[in-house]
Write a structure and sequence with these properties.
3 domains, 20 strands
Length: 655
């Protein structure tokens, strides 16, 4: 062939390929442990563009990443200089992957989230989409760092080299090394880059130790009832208030990704694909990861005996801590990400796998929180356990791979690739089938029966040890309650507020947040803008009311939050508690800033309610005493600590 006659530096193309496949010939050197013969392609040899057309496909596919303009490396060893159309094609492919990821994140995710919100998605799907966008942004930043890695790594490498050289020449350091040869010999072995037991194992060990310390911190917080436990309760109650039938079905499909039938199907499929590709040495790591994750989950549940949240959507018969779904999601899908990063030749594919896999892991954890079968600390603890087993599995896989070179079988790539796709599609189809029929037994709502107030209304706070303050997400006191209202029912309460000129705020949803955000930016009114969630007795507020100022704008408004209690008066009226404050601006672009004098807003709301003619009787009494304080967002407030107790008429003029 004509190409065989082209010679550069004394080597023919045909000879170069033979050397690549057989790892022989002038200048050939053995590759590092764990590298196959093709990966060790012609160390340090640069080939011109003319050589590319005659290189077999299985050799070309070893190109991994760009070293310099037009220069690509074979599994961190031999380099190939590519110019002209071949170079342009590879560069365009990398740009296409990054562009596709950005377009998908910026267009598809927000539109899908908005459509889900319109259909009752609330804040859950938008938050999931936001998580994906964050992961994608980090992936893109990583891509930019990868593309600019040479000058960055060169700079830091030069700095650390200079520091190391200066230290090595320091006479005191030399003396210290001579006095402790064993210690420094041990440290040298731990930092050896040429051995897996050196620097790679050291870094993995440090990461494992860090995760273990974090997990022990979570365990301590759960056992000692730290603020994270208070956040657990309030997060569970808040998410329970956002549930819809559509989202329930969606998150049941998502949570199915962490159930054992699907996990087993995916793991067996991955094992089969690894066998087909003759990469069996990575199979033990996969099953060590899964078996270790399962064993740790079982032991954790047995040891800690933590009960499931009472707001669970369906029945789970095991204990709560740690979340098995969270553990297995990181172990399984994290291992899949590792495999793709190890074997893929394109950074675009690696980054898409990182963003997509991380989103799946986050979605599974979110599904457990949304369905109310786990607390936030259960999921976080599960993620940490899963990461520890993932590090252990990667360590096992790399330790084996470092010693076991992999040999290619040219000519079978298409058949192996086709069979792998068939297996992957079959596993995905099995998941979709199982997810479509998955319908766990629902949990009957357990509502405490209403209790009748036998003494004066204020006595419920003493007799039942109810909190007198609203609470932040982690259970810290905020503004005190300033109203106790007795009303026939919810409609009675809403009707009286509307008669006073106050509107019912919209529940939190993507559509409502977008509308409110637009109004805040344009300084326009929005009479139904959502009210930031606040808690009392561990529950998010049931009703939000608001009223515009004379200059109607969503940035400044009167607003009040109310909670429905389980108490009734002897006459059968339901009791509601709440407070009011005045928004005087927007801070950080996400929440309002309140006026410090919350008593003035209390009096303003009472005057409005009294003017409706719906007050049957009312009184004002001491409740918490004068105090100064700050709310969750750091806004200061002061109050005399008094509270209004109101009884509403069913209809105007009715006694």
């Amino acid at each position: 062939m004509a190409g065989n006659l082209i010679r550069r530096k004394g080597y023919e193309v045909s000879q170069a390929v033979k050397e690549a496949e057989g790892h022989s010939g002038p200048g050939a050197e053995p590759g590092p442990p764990g590298m196959g013969v093709v990966e060790a392609l012609l160390p340090s040899r640069i080939f011109p563009e003319e050589f590319m057309p005659e290189m077999p496909a299985h050799v070309k596919r070893k190109l991994i990443f760009q070293e310099a303009p037009g220069e690509y490396r074979f599994h961190d060893l031999g380099k190939v200089q590519i110019s002209g159309p071949n170079r342009k094609t590879l560069e365009n492919m990398e740009r296409f992957h990054l562009f596709s990821l950005a377009v998908f994140s910026a267009v598809f995710i927000p539109r899908s989230a908005e459509a889900a919100a319109v259909n009752g998605g609330g804040l859950i799907v938008p938050l999931l989409g936001a998580s994906f966008l964050i992961v994608t942004a980090l992936a893109v930043i990583l891509a930019l760092l990868v593309r600019r890695r040479k000058p960055i790594l060169g700079f830091f490498g030069s700095v650390f080299h200079s520091i190391g050289q200066a230290l090595s020449e320091n006479p005191d350091v030399k003396k210290l090394v001579q006095e402790h040869p064993r210690f420094f010999s041990f440290m040298g072995r731990r930092l050896d880059r040429e051995s897996f037991s050196g620097l790679p194992a050291t870094l993995l060990g440090i990461a494992f130790l860090f995760l273990l310390i974090q997990f022990l911190g979570v365990v301590q917080s759960v056992l000692t009832l730290d603020p994270i436990v208070a956040a657990d309760l309030r997060t569970a109650n808040l998410l329970a208030s956002l549930r819809t039938e559509g989202l329930n079905r969606f998150f049941l499909m998502v949570t199915m990704l962490g159930r054992w039938p699907v996990v087993l199907a995916f793991a067996l499929s991955a094992s089969a694909i690894l066998l087909l590709k003759r990469r069996w040495i990575f199979i033990p790591g996969l099953w060590i990861c899964l078996l270790g994750a399962t064993t740790s989950t079982w032991l954790g549940k047995v040891v800690f005996h933590r009960q499931r949240p009472v707001v669970a959507e369906y029945v789970e018969w095991s204990y709560s801590f740690p979340s098995g779904h969270a553990v297995i999601s990181v172990a399984l899908y994290g291992y899949f990400i590792y495999l793709i990063w190890r074997f893929s030749n394109r950074w675009g594919v690696k980054l898409v796998a990182l963003a997509g896999g991380s989103t799946v892991i986050l979605a599974i954890g979110t599904s457990r929180l949304y369905l109310g079968v786990h607390y936030l600390s259960d999921v976080w603890g599960g993620y940490l356990v899963g990461l520890m087993w993932l590090i252990a599995a990667v360590s096992v896989a790399e330790a084996i791979a470092w010693k076991q070179p992999r040999r290619e079988e040219p000519g079978k790539e298409f058949a192996v690739s086709a069979a792998s796709w068939v297996i992957a599609v079959a596993a995905l189809s099995a998941y979709l089938l199982m997810g479509s029929v998955y319908n766990p037994p629902g949990k009957a709502a357990m509502k405490k029966p209403p209790q009748v107030v036998e003494q004066n209304i204020k006595s419920i706070f003493l007799k039942h040890t109810l909190p007198r303050f609203t609470e932040s997400l982690i259970g810290k006191n905020q503004e005190p309650l300033s109203f106790i209202i007795a009303a026939n029912d919810d409609e009675n309460l809403i009707r009286v507020f509307r008669a006073a000129g106050w509107s019912l705020a919209s529940p939190e949803s993507l559509g409502a947040l977008i509308k409110a955000g637009e109004a805040a930016v344009l300084n326009k009114p929005d009479s139904a803008a959502p009210v930031t969630p606040s808690f009392w007795n561990g529950q998010p507020h049931d009703f939000g009311f608001e009223k515009p100022l004379k200059k109607a704008t969503v940035r400044e408004r009167h607003h009040a939050r109310f909670w429905k209690t389980r108490f009734k008066t002897p006459e059968g009226l339901s009791l509601y508690v709440g407070n009011a404050s005045l928004d005087v601006g927007v801070k950080w672009g996400i929440t309002h800033r309140i006026q410090a004098n919350i008593d003035a807003e209390r009096e303003y709301l009472f005057k409005d309610l009294a003017g409706t003619g719906f007050l049957k009787n009312f009184g004002k009494t001491d409740f918490v005493g004068p105090l100064l304080g700050k709310n969750f967002f750091g806004d200061p407030f002061f109050t005399d600590g008094k509270i209004y107790i109101l009884t509403l008429r069913g209809k105007k003029g009715q006694h």
